[in-house]
Design a protein that fits this description.
- The complex is a heterodimer of chains A (729) and B (150).
- Chain A is 29% helix and 24% strand.
- Chain A is α+β, with helices and mostly antiparallel strands.
- In chain A, the strands form eight sheets. A seven-stranded mixed beta sheet of chain A has the order 12-13-10-20-17-18-19. In chain A, strands 15-23-22-21-16-30 form a six-stranded mixed beta sheet, sandwiched between helices.
- Chain B is globular, with a radius of gyration of 15 Å.
- The chains are: A alpha+beta (729), B alpha+beta (150).
- Chains A and B meet through helix 18 of A and helix 1, helix 2, helix 3, helix 4 and helix 5 of B.
Chain lengths: 729, 150
């Protein structure tokens, strides 16, 4: 990546490359040189052979932005997509920072397209204007008369053309970098790529085994490490008997970590075998030994329901308390949700080769942030970013798992390499990742509303849950506290006409390691808010759809998603013995509606989702086919979460170990899914997490339609279903 | 001495070697298309074919493979153009892609046993393999396409 943000001397050494640079604040020329490949700005280079290299500033975990972001630039550049090479950004370079995360390099929150849409279009447009100006000068004509076609400049008057590669060869010192504004951007009707079903660039590699992830990296002389982690957070190894482990075949070194012991060996299986021989006495003083998920959730529930306890205000409009108090009737309900694990299929892994002086390293990692990986390495080695050579790898799933400030798996590899003088690959087993997992927080939510006639008067949403940000990124917490978007997102409920709304965060004691998880807070706040809305409608004697329609009176785009979802579901037609349910939902500025059909085995308490229909509004859709894939996958993730997923903790230890006791949805449990994106004239607003949060309330709604019973504790496992049905378990 | 065939090539391992096939493929032979996911035959990311049938490489030991014929994703087709692989591309199945080698090997196992499976048979057969991105719908469609287009 050093070829992109370069000073004049670097540019000259590179030869005649154009380099265009765009920071968060706009465009600025960086450098250019006399001959050879042309580098218009920080985002792209154009070689004389016509190859166009575009920088990908995020990291790829399956969301597809490594295709869609470069395509946005290619669109405005008018590049031939076949000429484009995508270059992974491999260091913490704030030139490319995510504008929605304070210019930190951070792949999260469904922000990729939303954040980079305008900067990348401007970068492409600037390069295109520059190429046109160069061709005009060469031909001695007015630039205003020239046009572009994919990867070439054309003079319609004469019919002459120059390929972008040929233009790149024309660079001379007199060429200036043109200013561009949004007025220079294409009209959407002129798009060649945006909004079309261009294939992702990684599909072939991911269908042949050729795609490499960090777990696949092999470097010369590499050793392998397995880590025995403290069974309870906060404990440390007090004494280590590693006599047998050290004598075990292939073992190179036993490395004491702050929260565990790493076994470094010639092969991974040798490391695993020796790990089993370690005899470690752990400290027994950690407060985390009192973590107990059932007791903790009961305590959260008590806090949520104790209205005398005030929370940190997450969102407030009007005067909810007065409105509720002044209404004819008051309705209140409590909803619970358990800890949930990411279950990304690639286990946590990293490769590090620490320099002999211990103050630098080459690191291979799959994380959601170049910035935070760089910070981790800097902190662990007590060094500076210039000593870090980072390789950001495609991830085998993220879902929030790889977002933490301290990336302990990267740390494990660094400390193991430093201790042995060898490059080391650390691989956590699945059991390591489950037992040391950082989870979506458990939450108890108490909602109340006033009713006068059929009108809602005031809406109060109390979320009793720990702060996720305080745990996973304490630096960020200092900047944002007491507002925790990760815990609270969704409860602001902006798309309904609820003029008197209060969303409060009752910050409870943390009872597990915590992390963002697909949909962050909305994964449970949407469940509570939408399930409660159904219950309020019932109390008001209203049809829940009619009540939503009234609340969407100022939100025609939201109403359109509801109408469309009902339409494609052929609501209310349903086969005998099954039932339909629905929910609205939003993630940031995107919104949508979902209808599900369920079947219920009343003997076992097993719910099956048999069909799902979703309609979504996420503004302009850059890559529709990939967006639909994401939405389908988000529904599957939501069904899995709603029906199956629960982490339990006793004595500070996670009780689950692997996919046999933390089960996620399998192929034979997946419904037929039909999703649709509404065409709207609005900027792109994000897809990746949109469809997940509304699944659980839609299932709860269907369960009520089928049984007349409410289910208020997620996941809706068979024991809870039977309890809701009044059947002794 | 254990001698087996991997993607048509003869390879050898020491007798009594209790290495699991998964790590032999990945770390000894560099065939990293076969993935480590759970280590306990619960996720299917390590699915390969042993003597023409799907097997979990994470629970298959070299010592049991003398004379065996092993096929991995790298050996499924000469140019990545097996009907399933073409269908995977046509249906744009993968998201993160990590599970997809195993999914394709599992699907190929189905088509060996049953060249024309119906949708329920596909879903049942594929339920050994987890996909956390939730591409199951597209996997089913891709298998159906491969059956259709061959």
């Amino acid at each position: 990546m050093g070829k992109i943000e370069m000073n004049r001397r670097d540019a000259l050494r590179l030869g005649g490359a154009f380099a265009f640079a765009i920071g968060a604040g706009g465009l600025a020329s960086v450098a250019h040189a006399a001959t050879g490949p042309v580098t218009p700005n920080a985002w792209l280079r154009i070689a004389e052979d016509g190859e166009i290299t575009i920088v990908y500033p995020l990291t790829e975990m399956g969301q597809g932005s490594s295709s869609s972001l470069p395509m946005i630039l290619a669109e405005e550049l008018d590049a031939n997509w076949e000429d484009v090479v995508v270059e992974q950004l491999n260091r913490d370079d704030r030139t490319y920072g995510n504008p929605l995360f304070g210019n930190v390099l951070y792949t999260a929150g469904s922000t990729g397209v939303r954040a980079y849409f305008t900067p990348l279009r401007l970068a492409g447009a600037q390069a295109r204007r520059m190429l046109i100006a160069m061709a005009a000068k060469h031909w001695g004509v007015d630039a205003a008369g020239l046009v572009t076609e994919p990867s070439l400049v054309k003079d319609p008057a004469s019919g002459r053309t120059l390929s972008y590669g040929e233009v790149a060869a024309l660079w001379d010192e007199s060429i200036s970098i043109p200013e561009v504004t949004e007025a220079h951007l294409k009209a959407p009707s002129d798009y060649r790529y945006i909004g079309t079903d261009m294939p992702r660039r990684d599909t072939k590699a991911k269908s042949t085994g050729a795609q490499t992830y960090v777990i696949d990296v092999a470097v010369p002389n590499m050793a392998y490490a397995a880590v025995l982690r403290t069974p309870v957070e906060g404990e440390t190894p007090v004494s280590i008997d590693d006599t047998d482990a050290r004598a075990s075949a292939g073992v190179i070194e036993i490395v004491t970590l702050p929260d565990g012991v790493a076994v470094v060996a010639e092969s991974y299986e040798q490391a695993l075998a020796a790990r089993d021989m370690l005899d470690i006495t752990w400290s027994e003083t950690s407060p985390a030994r009192s973590f107990d998920s059932a007791a903790d959730l009961a305590a959260y529930e008590t806090v949520a329901r104790d209205l005398a306890q005030e929370g940190a205000v997450w969102s407030s409009k009007g005067d909810a308390l007065t409105a509720i108090g002044g209404a004819e009737r008051q309705i209140a309900r409590t909803y619970l949700s358990d800890y949930a694990y990411h279950a990304q299929i690639e286990p946590m892994a990293a490769v590090a080769a620490v320099d002999p002086d211990g103050k630098g390293a080459e690191v291979w990692a799959g994380t959601q942030s170049q910035t935070l990986t760089t910070l981790t390495v800097s902190n662990v080695l007590d060094t500076t970013p210039d000593r870090i050579r980072l390789h950001m790898m495609t991830m085998g799933g993220g879902f929030g798992r790889r977002t933490a400030l301290m990336q302990d798996y990267v740390r494990d590899a660094l400390l193991s390499s430093k201790a042995t003088g060898r490059p080391v690959k650390v691989v956590w087993t699945r059991e390591d990742d489950v037992r040391t997992g950082a989870f979506r927080p458990a939450a108890a939510q108490h909602l109340s509303a006033g009713l006068s006639g059929a009108e809602i008067r005031g809406w109060r949403h109390r979320v009793a849950a720990p702060s996720v940000i305080e745990f996973f990124n304490p630096i960020r917490w200092e900047q944002v506290k007491p507002k925790d978007i990760i815990t609270m997102k969704g409860s602001e409920n902006p798309f309904y006409a609820l003029p008197d709304l209060l969303a409060e965060h009752l910050v409870t004691r943390r009872g597990a390691r915590l992390s963002p998880w697909r949909g962050i807070g909305a994964a449970y706040t949407t469940f509570a808010a939408e399930a409660f809305m159904d219950e309020v409608a019932e109390e008001a004697g209203q049809d829940p759809i009619d009540m939503r329609r009234a609340l969407l009176r100022d939100n025609p785009r939201g109403l359109a998603t509801l109408d469309r979802a009902l339409e494609i579901a052929n609501w209310p037609q349903v086969p005998e013995g099954r039932a339909l349910g629905f929910s609205m939902g939003h993630y940031g500025p995107s919104q949508g509606a979902l209808v599900v059909e369920i079947d219920l085995d009343t003997a076992t308490g097993t719910i099956a989702v048999t069909k799902a229909w979703g309609a979504y509004d996420a503004g302009l859709i850059v890559a529709p086919d990939n967006a639909i894939n994401q939405l389908e996958g988000g529904i599957v993730y939501g069904i899995s979460s709603a029906l199956k997923e629960s982490v339990s903790i006793v004595g500070g230890q996670v009780e689950q170990s692997n996919f046999y006791d933390y089960e996620i949805l399998r192929a034979n449990e997946v419904p037929e899914i039909e999703v649709e994106l509404l065409e709207v004239d609005a900027p792109p607003t994000g897809i990746g997490e949109l469809s997940t949060p509304m699944v659980a309330p839609a299932i709860a709604s269907a369960f009520h339609a089928l049984t007349g019973r409410r289910i208020r504790h997620m996941p809706f496992t068979p024991d809870r279903v039977l309890e809701a049905l009044g059947t002794p378990t | 001495m254990v001698e087996l065939t991997v993607n048509g090539k003869t390879v050898q391992a020491a007798a009594g070697d209790d290495t699991r096939l998964l790590f032999f493929l990945r770390d000894e032979l560099g065939l990293t298309g076969t993935k480590f996911g759970c280590g306990v035959a619960s996720c299917g990311a390590c699915t390969v074919h042993v003597n023409g049938e799907a097997a979990y490489a994470c629970q298959t030991y070299l010592s049991d493979l003398d004379g065996a014929d092993v096929t991995t994703i790298e050996g499924l087709s000469p140019n990545g153009d097996h009907p399933l692989q073409k269908a995977w591309v046509a249906e744009q199945v993968p998201q993160c892609g990590y599970c997809q080698s195993g999914q394709i090997m599992r699907a190929a196992d189905l088509l060996i046993q049953n060249p024309a499976p119906n949708r329920d048979e596909i879903r049942e057969h594929m339920s050994t393999n987890l996909c956390r991105c939730g591409t199951y719908t597209r996997i089913t469609h891709a298998v159906e396409r491969a059956v259709r287009e061959g």
